[in-house]
Design brief:
- The protein is of the alpha+beta class.
- About 35% of the residues lie in helices and about 30% in strands.
- The chain has a single domain, classed as 2-Layer Sandwich (Alpha-Beta Plaits), CATH 3.30.70.100.
- It has a four-stranded antiparallel β-sheet with strand order 2-3-1-4.
- A hairpin with a 5-residue loop joins strand 2 and strand 3.
- The longest helix is centred in the N-terminal third of the chain and has 15 residues.
Length: about 100
């Protein structure tokens, strides 16, 4: 389950993909497959996929316990070919983040 709290040490990768018209579901399917393949990596926590209502973007919100765990996830995705397969379905704009503040 995603954790959105400051000062936990959790690292979040937010990756916004620009997709061609009609391309959201194919990318979501691949990102689901990639997330399922990461479930046994030590420190992996969660992935949440979002589709824009205008059909032009997919956002992947993935979390790991710390930077070392996020590195293991990235190395797995790279060696398994997921990152290369993503390129065929959309243009990625990834970034790593930590929660600075939440207001409830």
């Amino acid at each position: 389950m995603p954790i959105i709290r400051a000062d936990t040490g959790v690292i979040t990768q937010i990756n916004v993909f620009d997709v061609p018209e009609g391309g959201q579901q194919a990318l979501i399917g691949l990102l689901r497959e990639a997330a399922m393949s990461c479930r046994d990596i030590p420190g992996w926590m969660s992935a949440s996929l979002h589709r824009s209502l205008d059909g032009t973007r997919v956002v992947n919100y993935a979390q790991a316990r710390d930077q070392a765990a996020m590195r293991r996830v990235f190395e797995h995705l790279l060696s398994s070919g997921f990152l290369e397969r993503n390129k065929a379905l959309g243009q990625a704009h990834p970034g790593l983040y930590e929660v600075a503040l939440t207001v409830e």
